[in-house]
Specification:
By secondary structure, the protein is α/β, with parallel strands linked by helices. It has 12 helices and 9 strands. Helix 3 links the parallel strand 3 and strand 4.
């Protein structure tokens, strides 16, 4: 039976920019958290690609992966994810080929198809003038041609990159991503931390349609979840108001840096906004180690997830580190 005690735990980091602090401090905090997570026994530390968003500093994702991998020694480091349509597959093959060469057997390549920003920024990134977006599946096929062994007469190669076996994951928040991961025989990570609506349907679709591949014989599912742990339920619920304010900014189209927690959200959101945010947070767990253990065991029982990837953006860095420490404690208890 799958439980929190036997489920791999991972960290999802957007290098949050804290109100009143600098981006340089965000990067230093990420490295400090990664080292802390490594000591606590977390399995993976992933960074997510986002662009032109106040409060998020993980735009140059490959560079940050190298920074984190270079400052740690055991924990796997990767992308959660690289938004492949934003890039030339050759460039990603070269970047991750370089990372895998520098930090062998420690690099993961999670792939998504969303822009990681708004439409204006997407056009600035992609410079696509034909009016037709490249198919995500075709981009993955091209990427894997660069990672494969070079063929006779092949004119374009990824150096470094060719011949390297870098674990790939399909990331998503839709049924499309579930179908693609199943058809390719790749592990699948669902973004339950911000898009819970289709999670169970997508996971079921993935498992039912899974086609074994050379690298994966059975389905493998990772679930993203928002978690903030503190010594008491009351403190965790207060720290969680930072997360509520971030989601509120998203629905108001008012992206802001990470804001300090408040005693009450009553005067900040409307009843309709509260309902929307709490619905987005339906799988989130905010509480003491005992509350976290119960909540995550419930999520694992429902999803049968093989791994959890945990996002927990407390405003204060020490609270954030303490949260991941208490989550690990809950898993061991």
């Amino acid at each position: 039976m799958k439980t929190l005690a036997n489920t791999k735990l991972n960290v999802l980091d957007l290098a949050p920019i804290i109100e009143g602090h600098t981006i340089a401090e965000s990067f230093a905090n990420s490295l400090d958290l990664a080292r802390h997570a490594e000591q606590l026994g977390y399995h993976r530390y992933w960074l997510a690609e986002h662009h032109n968003l106040d409060g998020i500093a993980s735009a140059a994702t490959s560079l940050l992966i190298g920074y984190i991998a270079g400052g740690t020694s055991k924990i796997r480091v990767g992308s959660g994810g690289i938004m492949l349509p934003n890039h030339s597959p050759l460039v990603i093959a070269e970047q991750f080929g370089t990372l895998e060469t520098l930090y062998p057997n420690r690099i993961d390549l999670g792939l998504g198809r969303a822009p990681g920003s708004d439409g204006f920024t997407m056009r600035a990134l992609r410079r696509e003038l034909s009016g037709r977006e490249a198919d995500f599946g075709d981009l993955i096929t091209e990427l894997n041609q660069y990672f494969g062994e070079p063929k006779f007469g092949q004119k374009v190669r990824a150096i470094p990159g060719q011949g390297l076996k870098i674990p790939q994951w399909i990331l998503g928040s839709s049924l499309y991503s579930a179908k693609l991961a199943a058809a390719r025989g790749l592990p699948y990570s669902f973004a339950g931390h911000f898009a819970p609506e289709l999670m169970m349907q997508a996971i079921d679709l993935y498992r039912v349609g899974f086609q074994p591949s050379a690298d994966l014989k059975e389905p493998k599912v990772m679930v993203g979840v928002q978690v903030i742990a503190a010594d008491t339920d009351a403190k965790a619920k207060k720290l969680a108001t930072t997360v509520y304010q971030r989601f509120l900014g998203i629905i108001r189209n008012q992206r802001v840096n990470l804001l300090p927690p408040v005693d009450s959200m009553a005067d900040i959101w409307t009843p309709q906004e509260e309902e929307f945010v709490l619905d987005k947070m339906r799988y989130s767990v905010f509480g003491s180690p005992e509350t976290v253990k119960v909540g995550l065991n419930k999520l694992i029982a429902e999803t049968q997830a093989d791994e959890l990837i945990i996002m927990g953006d407390a405003y204060d860095h020490h609270d954030r580190k303490r949260s991941y420490e208490l989550i690990a404690k809950a898993a061991r208890s």
